């Protein structure tokens, strides 16, 4: 169990300081949660003002010279015994946030909040009306602000590195390009082989009439089966599924967005968000109310949502073990369908325009397209006005299909109304997940048998003990190495994709 | 429409300062709302820590010398033209909160938060186990803290005045005693006459099987019929119904606690909380994000919940106009029941042990008992240990019944785990409500006919225009005088009670 040296006066002072910040940040997270699940239609502006005020207070606290002095004093001693990994991580994260905050003037932080709110509204209207031109000025403003932010944060090689680092500490374009090249290669070649095989998967069993209340009950049972603790969390609806926590493992909530005619949406979102939630709930209680509670990074977080969703939750053995839940919830619909048919349907490969609906083979191509485009925007190699044209060209090049409208293309999601640099986390998560998956399979020789028996607790226990408990104590690469024994390596992902979809589509070679 | 002199530099500075405070307070209200509607079971301690931190930040802001200087400068000029009533109220409320905060040291505020949390737990257990002795030490601690708070705030005549003033500015024991004497008298004599009449009301039509989902839908329709705006609010469940807003009229939410076998609980809570909510939603938009948004005081707030619940919502004309909603929700149950029978049932008089279930005739006796007891506790005339004995004695004296256990007596609700001085607001609210009710009846000669026709919008429009729009600009007595043309006067309540229940119970004289 990670422990802080609470008897050390300055560690204790830092903890006290950061706990207050953590409490205030948790109230911000609560405001976000509420905005997505319950906020009345006409209260958006007032909530925006509340969040801006809170952001100001947090900026004030993070930039306090008193905090800077405390960090500096601790940095001199904390590397050595008897200080713990938790102490060192606390000082490291405090330094990181203190630096980030002091490098951005409060006026810039406030300007970003204003532009983000206005940009969100502009995007919403533009998407409705398929009118990229009306969104372009706001996107340009966001790009300009993100460039300024990157310059203020600083970077060694390329400006985009500064933004990557916000979501994945120490990640760079150089590292990403090395990881992404084999991903692009395996995705493209596998897609080609699947398409050339002429084989098709029938996914019709996912469609029908599934009343929302029964979907909710089913998703609750699925979460309980995975080991999610409802005494430390809850399930709600929101337009886009997400998971949030409030600075502690004792309050980790998730949302779904059930579709009445399509069961896969809520079920797979439940397992995906459930993965995030299991990770958060597994964090050591000793890290509660500190910046170290939660996941190591966004990439590592996505590794857990994708591990549970794809590597475990879309597999046939998993559904052998859990199909009775589907049958109990919708007895008529699933009377003549079996686990194998259902899990095959979940894994149907088909290039599509919308990232969040993509299969595992094409998913990372969506990410790579966006990564390339936003890196080019930030580094000044691409004008906002050319974005739709280039977007469509790359979809044709990578996926062989082209959006019929910007609404289904460059305007499809909200990401570019705020920060840049997040997308790569998704693919990084897939890579980490593959590596962890093979570690698990190697650790548990009877992995598939246990899954087919309805057991996933052996996975959760192992991950808790080797990974979840540490929260943000270890940096992503370090953590992956501790969990898998190796540095992040894209080969596991290539192997996984080829094995799984080779088998599903009966590809030779 | 109330307006601030925003072009005046110091008014503007004060507004900016108070808007930030209002935003932070709104996040606290959100945390409370969430705690009552969604917080996971095991997250209570962490939420407590978050709220304590926020309380500290708010204390810091309210006590800032910079704020004190701003208030002092404005106080010199604000009484005169061209400053507005809104400006004056802003300075008045800022002074009030600044004084209150500076008179309590932060250590006392924190100690109160700790004792409150522990006392709540002790009360919960004591109530479960009917064990007042285990709660007594915590109640003693709370009494001691409340006495200290009162002494620090200061008072002119009696210590309890200092606590009354927190919920009802300028209210004193002297004023209360003058208002409460006729209330006690009319309640006791009316109860006696009803009991001696031997007449009884059959309330069996309120009992049956009412599935919660249908109750929710019914309550939504009722709220819409009353003029509550769901684009600026929402309805949820909580163990105890309440209404909250977040520093603005654009986000005003309420809760109910439906009972599956008893329809009156959710329906009347909906109208009661709806009254609070209509008041909050009616506040002028110009007061948004300031301490002036919301109701004038707790007493004035209760006047609106009680006005809508009792004076309007339990009347026969109202149900003539709205019975179709009950029938639509529960067609079988209400097939052979009519509006007259239903509204009579709602008004059945029967002395009971539990305040929140009390009828209008006995309700204020519950309040008066508690007012007397807590005044005696605060003024040092009563030892905590004697409380259960005295409680039971006064219930026998006033209501003619006696609790069989402390669980149904002195431990019945949570109020005495935190502050003292709130209870009188309930009765004060009933008095204000009666006075406003007769003003409305005088203004609208066809009051009952309009109600019976299903219209309540004329009431809401009038109240908005004459009362709601002003938020907290006017002090309670001033506001009541503006709305009704007279100072608060208990005679209206006595008249209302005698008229209504005289008719219902066919009392002669």
TrEMBL record, chains A, B:
GO terms for molecular function: metal ion binding; metallocarboxypeptidase activity. It is an enzyme of class 3 (hydrolase). It catalyses: Release of a C-terminal amino acid with broad specificity, except for -Pro. Binds 1 zinc ion per subunit. The keyword Hydrolase applies. GO terms for biological process: proteolysis. The keyword Zinc applies. SUPFAM superfamilies: Metalloproteases ('zincins'), catalytic domain. The active site is at 273 (proton donor/acceptor). Its cofactor is Zn(2+). Zn(2+) binds at residues 272, 276, 302. Belongs to the peptidase M32 family. This is Metal-dependent carboxypeptidase.
């Amino acid at each position: 169990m990670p422990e802080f040296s609470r008897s050390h006066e300055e560690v204790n002072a830092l903890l006290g300081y950061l706990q207050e910040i953590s409490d205030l940040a948790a109230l911000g997270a609560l405001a976000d949660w509420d905005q997505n699940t319950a906020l009345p239609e006409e209260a958006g502006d007032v909530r925006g003002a509340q969040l801006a005020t809170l952001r100001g207070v947090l900026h004030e606290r993070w930039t306090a010279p008193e905090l800077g002095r405390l960090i500096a004093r601790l940095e001199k001693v904390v590397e050595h015994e008897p200080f713990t990994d938790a102490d060192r991580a606390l000082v490291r994260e405090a330094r990181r946030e203190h630096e980030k905050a002091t490098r951005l003037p409060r006026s810039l932080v406030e300007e970003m909040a204003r532009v983000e709110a206005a940009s969100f509204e502009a995007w919403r209207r533009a998407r409705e009306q398929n009118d990229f031109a009306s969104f372009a000025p706001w996107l340009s403003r966001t790009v300009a602000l993100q460039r300024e932010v990157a310059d203020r944060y600083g970077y060694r090689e390329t400006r985009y590195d500064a933004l990557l680092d916000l979501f994945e500490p120490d990640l760079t374009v150089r590292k990403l390009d090395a990881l992404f090249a084999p991903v692009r290669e395996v995705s493209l070649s596998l897609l080609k082989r699947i398409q050339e095989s002429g084989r098709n998967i029938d996914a019709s069993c996912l469609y029908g009439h599934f009343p929302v209340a029964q979907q909710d009950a089913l998703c609750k049972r699925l979460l309980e089966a995975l080991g999610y603790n409802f005494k430390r969390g809850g399930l709600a609806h929101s337009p886009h599924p997400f998971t949030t926590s409030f600075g502690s493992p004792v309050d980790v909530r998730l949302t779904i967005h059930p579709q009445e005619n399509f069961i896969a949406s809520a079920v797979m979102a439940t397992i995906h968000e459930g993965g995030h939630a299991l990770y958060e709930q597994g964090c050591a209680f000793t890290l509660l109310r500190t910046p170290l509670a939660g996941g190591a990074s966004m990439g590592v977080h996505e590794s857990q949502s994708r591990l549970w969703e794809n590597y475990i939750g879309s597999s046939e053995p998993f559904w052998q073990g859990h199909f009775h839940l589907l049958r109990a919830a919708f007895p008529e619909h699933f009377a003549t369908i079996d686990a194998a048919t259902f899990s095959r349907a979940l894994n149907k490969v088909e290039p599509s325009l919308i990232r969040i609906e993509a299969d595992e083979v094409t998913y990372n191509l969506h990410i790579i397209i966006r990564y390339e485009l936003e890196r080019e925007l930030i580094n000044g190699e691409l004008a906002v006005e050319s974005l739709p044209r280039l977007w469509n060209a790359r979809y044709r090049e990578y996926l062989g299909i082209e959006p019929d409208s910007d609404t289904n293309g460059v305007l499809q999601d909200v990401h570019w109304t705020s920060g840049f640099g997040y997308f790569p986390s998704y693919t990084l998560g897939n890579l980490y997940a593959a590596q962890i998956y093979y570690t698990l399979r190697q650790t548990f020789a009877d992995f598939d048998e246990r899954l087919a028996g309805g057991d996933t607790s052996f996975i959760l226990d192992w991950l808790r003990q080797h990974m979840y408990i540490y929260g943000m104590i270890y940096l992503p690469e370090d953590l992956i190495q501790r969990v898998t024994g190796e540095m992040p390596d894209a080969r596991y992902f290539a192997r996984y994709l080829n094995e799984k979809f080779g088998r599903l589509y009966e590809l030779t070679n």
